[in-house]
Design a protein that fits this description.
- The protein is mainly alpha-helical.
- Among the domains are: about 180-235, no CATH class; about 405-590, no CATH class.
- It has 23 helices and two strands.
- It has helices at about 5-10, 15-30, 30-40, 55-80, 85-105, 110-130, 135-155, 180-190, 210-225, 230-235, 240-255, 265-275, 275-280, 290-305, 310-325, 335-350, 355-385, 405-410, 440-450, 465-495, 500-525, 540-555, 560-590; strands at about 425, 435.
- Strands 1-2 form a two-stranded antiparallel sheet.
- Strand 1 (about 425) and strand 2 (about 435) form a beta hairpin.
- It is globular, with a radius of gyration of 25 Å.
- The relative contact order is 0.09.
């Protein structure tokens, strides 16, 4: 997809041909580049830290030496240091690094070492090849690279059975095992969809795109490359890792679509790239990651179609939306704000090119409808399953049916935030209920947007200080979310880089997701129905409006604006640092 906002940037590439070439590849094929990087960084040890051997540290050290040979002379050249000093410094840097690799190769905390190693490599290349003409690309790539290291280490330290949603188990046979892993194993061994009423098997009600891709990946590694089945399915985590990075890349493209630059670009990029929801999403084996990746692709393509209403652009929307629905039917929620843009453009074209727009709508439906609806229509025709069927959950301790929905959404008692982790009713060894269930959807999503359902004080044994750090993290994140929400309301009515239709489209999208979550919470009164995984794109819409606010702050010379800038930049810095620290501690403790 060509983006006219980048044309001038490509023409003004830095003077170094190698740097220009690398950036040219990333700019032309960002998603393919991200996929290759994910494969290179995970498949050698099947996306599991338990498979990281001493030999891998030797490879890391060799890459470190090669990088030293590239980076040190480049930095010396920038500072006009003459031979033989660059050669001496290269050998000194390589020699200094050797003891660290020898020390950590047999240690348990390998993930922390890999994270530090990756960050050092990224920073070294950044300072060695940085050019002002490509400053925003260098800065955003550094942000994405650092956030990728967090996600990579989290994936390596999280198995397909840890901190997952409804995964069940991967069956080593053709039987229909329950859960998302069971769905994947059924497709992997049987090579066809479950040929029965899928209401009978837990999670088989979902369209099969994600599960099919995981099944193909697992089958290829197991049958073609000879990887044992346990490692093959574990390695499938490379796919959600890639989908999570895809969302970050798409967010960047949306921010650049509105020509955000400088801090107005970096602030929303840091919030999005380091937001914990996209970290734990990278390891989830359910269909959320691919669904949201495609939904955000549809949002980006809609913005581009609105600017240039062509058949090619509307087909891209149809593909993203249709494939998103073929992953998870709830991706259809994106259709409502997209339809809003379609209607606006149609009425604007009534005096000029309305026939052309009608033709584009026909092309959209011809692509999107079959892709998105074949699976639910199959269930309706063969077994009478309603198109909007949602699998029912059994009665569990997490049920909150005893409290009315109005009481839940209006209860903001401080008791709920004494614990910044999500509250769940649990039973002691005698079976006596302890604690209480989360009831307010707003408070629940603020909590599990940061820690998910599965991270709490139990993840930090003998680390009492972590509870205090997590409290600071929660309140900083909640403050940034509140600021983003306020700015969304403000800039819906004030002038900014987006016109009224684009702003309304993004706010409509945000509201539709919120309404859906509250509807789920009302109709299915369980703690699990109040989960931020149903709202993840709202991080990007909120961050975008925060970027609009930063644009205004950057041009203001008033004292209150300067104070707000310092406060906001400090909060975002603390947010990204604590997000990295907390999730690295989670996987390091469990290693």
């Amino acid at each position: 997809m060509n983006n006219p906002t980048h044309i001038s940037e490509k023409k003004s590439s830095g003077s170094n041909p190698a740097v220009s070439g690398i950036f040219g590849i990333f700019a032309a094929h960002p998603y393919l580049s991200a996929f290759l990087i994910c494969i290179i960084c995970t498949t050698p040890f099947c996306a599991s830290s338990s498979n990281i051997t001493s030999a891998f540290f030797i490879i890391m050290y060799l890459f470190f030496c090669v990088s030293t040979g590239l980076v040190v002379p480049r930095i010396c050249k920038k500072h006009k240091l003459k031979d033989p000093l660059p050669v001496i410094l290269t050998f000194v840097a390589s020699a200094i690094g050797a003891p660290f690799f020898l020390y950590f190769r047999n240690r348990e905390n390998k993930l922390m070492f890999i994270f530090v190693y990756g960050c050092i490599m990224l920073t070294a290349y950044y300072f060695a090849f940085y050019t002002k003409k490509l400053s925003h690309r260098f800065n955003t790539l550094l942000i994405m690279g650092m956030s990728f290291m967090v996600k990579l280490c989290y994936v390596l330290g999280t198995s397909i059975s840890e901190r997952q949603h409804d995964v069940g188990y991967f069956s080593p046979s053709k039987e229909a095992a329950p859960g998302h892993l069971g769905y994947i194993s059924y497709l992997c061994y049987n090579h066809h969809l479950y040929d029965g009423d899928y209401r009978e098997v837990f999670q088989y009600c979902h369209p099969p795109l994600h599960h099919g891709l995981c099944a193909v990946w697992t089958w290829f590694l197991n049958r073609i490359l000879g990887v044992d089945i346990e490692n093959a399915i574990e390695s499938a985590q490379v796919l959600p890792l890639f989908y999570s990075m895809t969302i970050i890349i798409t967010a960047y493209k949306i921010f650049r679509h509105f020509q955000l630059k400088g801090r107005a670009l970096y602030i929303p990029m840091i919030i999005t790239a380091f937001h914990p929801c996209f970290t734990y999403l990278a390891a989830l084996m359910n269909n959320d990651a691919l669904s949201w990746a495609l939904a955000m692709g549809a949002v980006l393509c809609t913005l581009r179609w609105y600017k240039a209403p062509s058949t090619a652009n509307i087909i891209k929307i149809a593909l993203c939306l249709g494939l998103g629905m073929m992953t998870k039917l709830s991706a259809a929620l994106t259709a409502f704000p997209i339809a809003f843009v379609f209607i606006i453009v149609f009425f604007r074209s009534l005096k000029t090119s309305w026939k052309k727009i009608i033709g584009q709508f026909a092309a959209f439906m011809a692509v999107c409808f079959p892709l998105g609806m074949w699976f639910p229509l199959r269930g309706l025709i063969r077994w009478g399953i309603p198109l909007t069927y949602v699998q029912k959950l059994p009665e569990m301790d997490q049920s909150i049916k005893g409290i009315t929905f109005f009481e839940r959404i209006t209860d903001f008692s401080l008791k709920q935030v004494e614990n910044v982790y999500e509250n769940w009713l649990w039973r002691d060894e005698s079976g006596v209920p302890q604690g209480f269930n989360e009831t307010n959807p707003l408070i629940a999503i603020l909590k599990n947007s940061i820690f998910g359902e599965f991270i709490n004080g139990n993840n930090f044994p003998d680390m009492a200080y972590m509870d205090k750090i997590c409290k600071v993290f929660f309140w900083v994140a909640a403050s940034i979310a509140a600021a983003a929400f306020v700015l969304m309301i403000v800039y819906l009515f004030r002038k900014c880089a987006a016109d009224i239709v684009q702003k309304s489209f993004l706010v409509f999208f945000h509201i539709v997701l919120m309404i859906n979550l509250y509807t789920l919470s009302k109709n299915y009164p369980m703690v699990c129905s109040m989960n931020f995984r149903y709202l993840m794109p709202t991080v990007i819409t909120g961050a975008l409006f925060l970027g609009f606010g930063v644009s205004k702050l950057e041009t203001s010379k008033k004292a209150p604006a300067k104070a707000l800038k310092v406060l906001l930049y400090s909060a975002v810095t603390v947010f990204s640092a604590l997000s990295t620290f907390v999730y690295m501690v989670v996987v390091s403790v469990e290693e």
